[in-house]
Write a structure and sequence with these properties.
This protein is mainly α. It has a domain of 40 residues. The chain is built from four helices and no strands. Helix 3 runs antiparallel to helix 4. The protein is elongated. The chain starts with a helix and ends in a 12-residue tail after the last helix.
Length: 87
């Protein structure tokens, strides 16, 4: 974009900065949500809840399936990364 374009877009700079910040927050939230270590900890906690009788087998199976789906997604290599590791 040339100098004139930059000058014309200057009033929108705060919006562009806000959008960048929102993208960063969403990216970090997704990273934490799909973090394999966090999911494994949740699976362990879920098993403890089953053993303690807090949940029944049906609810355990449903929640376990959800966590395993998240784990599978979290372990997939992502575009723009090397072997699934974030640069």
């Amino acid at each position: 974009m040339g100098l004139i374009g930059e000058v014309l877009m200057l009033p929108f700079a705060p919006v562009r900065g806000s959008l960048w910040a929102v993208r960063q927050v969403v990216t970090e939230a997704e990273r934490q949500y799909y973090d394999p270590a966090a999911i494994r900890a949740e699976l362990a906690q879920l098993e403890k809840r089953l053993e303690a009788g807090e949940i029944d087998d049906e609810e355990f199976d449903r929640l376990e399936d959800e966590l395993l789906d998240r784990l599978e997604i979290g372990l997939r290599p992502r575009a723009g990364t090397d072997n699934g590791t974030i640069r």
